């Protein structure tokens, strides 16, 4: 009966975990309209005509934020909320696409399959639940099945059965996709050679940069012709800019003075005889030590870096002395010397510590927020610069930037990025709380996608033509050397004509890097294509120039070792491809889907 009661108590937690368990594999019907017809007025997005309602999106967003708050132990910053919002959006898009695929393919699960899996192969989220683990924290099948067979808990298992119904459907889809995965004998052998075969070569390198740029004539006609045939290389994506004001919540001079005054009052009480440990528990803002009366065990000079500016004063003080106040970049510090000793030829002290941080007062923080709200409210009707002057701040600008991850001058902020590229010039975003302040911003400039004019990229075009011509000349020299070798000259004699140096590599693998060359796949491929020691390659165009290679040594294929490792390699390759096939399939599915994201309408 104790097990049953425990099961009932844990049911809510189990089901919550089950709901969160799907990140890319388990599908839940979150109330989306699969008919493609409009289900309600507020729609946060569409996936191939299937609507995702704002209500359902908000519900899932709230659940995820609640989970993250529990993990973080407090409120979330705007950047964290943006991350969670994107995570929920991507998950719901994925679930919609996969749910539609399951229906299109008619993939279903029989009740008998669910019962069998529930009784004989429970999901990991149940196996890892303490309700079904023994004293050794191992899953106990007997305990689990006893809970299953308890008639009083039958209704509580219904959501779990539905969870399994959905997860088994996805599992069948994955099995269908993975059924096409094959590993051929040639692929196994190639992977074996990649892992086990090494080679060493001599090589001649013809460096394109050895050709003087002044000797290469590049006319205006060549530049114009290249530009016309390669305009896609000079496409400038849409760019935007914002103006913004940061309303600082850095502590003011008055705030810091108040912190110093508070520290001095506590210091005077400690000097007057109040218990230092009690004062630390009451006043110290050092979370690591305050609950322990501010106690910091014995340490030598240089160990506590945060005390470096005043550690000499601490070590010169006597036992039981109360010393301070001392200032650091972060605040004010008080100490009581608890004990002193010498150990391992080092002087050490034990102290109690009270820390007062320089923090903005409530008045400072409230004023910053009020100013930010005022500017945000007034900016549609009043000049941004005038408003900034009115509240005593200055306007900053990002300059034009493309859509990506970082906003110039601000950093990673997906909310600002999304708003900026979804709204018109002069649109004002919602007030954002950032580190040490509040930010108000508006879209100040938009530059549509365009091809950069020739005059702007003329230098780039000339440099590209120059690089191509240098590579061509390097190829000509390499071909001349190779021709001499074909006529009977040695690699050394043929390369000496052009004063080319012969170098020798260290041993390298097919999948490795070559010292002095790098991870050049053309070079490595040409090296392992040589069959006999002494064989010389044709000219090889690498990433940095042209090469001629002469094989010095190469490991022979070990048939017996290959046979002993073949099964393991095959299994590893198959497992790798099975793990990749679902991701590749979903990427293509998403690429071909029509996805409309309306979140910017509701989240600024």
In a few lines, what is going on in this structure?
This protein is of the alpha+beta class and 604 residues long. It is built from 20 helices and 21 strands.
Structure description:
This protein has 4 domains: 2-178, no CATH class; 198-234 and 455-554, Chitinase A, domain 3 (Roll), CATH 3.10.50; 238-250 and 362-448, Chitinase A, domain 3; 253-357, no CATH class. Residues 1-40 have low confidence and may be disordered. The chain contains 20 helices and 21 strands. 47% of the residues lie in helices and 18% in strands. Strands 3, 17, 18, 19 and 20 form a 5-stranded antiparallel β-sheet that branches. With 604 residues, it is an alpha+beta fold.
Chain-wise SSE layout:
Elements: H1 2-21, E1 43-47, E2 50-53, H2 54-72, H3 78-105, H4 111-120, H5 124-127, H6 141-148, H7 158-178, H8 185-196, E3 198-206, H9 220-229, E4 235-236, E5 239-248, H10 253-271, H11 276-283, E6 295-300, H12 311-316, E7 322-327, E8 331-343, E9 346-357, H13 362-378, H14 384-390, E10 396-397, E11 401-402, E12 406-407, E13 411-412, H15 414-420, E14 432-434, E15 437-447, E16 450-451, H16 454-486, H17 491-496, E17 502-504, E18 508-509, H18 521-529, E19 540-541, E20 546-554, H19 559-591, E21 595-597, H20 599-602
Antiparallel strand pairs: 1-2, 1-21, 3-17, 3-18, 3-20, 4-16, 5-10, 5-11, 5-15, 6-9, 7-8, 8-9, 12-13, 14-15, 19-20
Helix pairs in contact: 2-3, 4-7, 8-19, 9-16
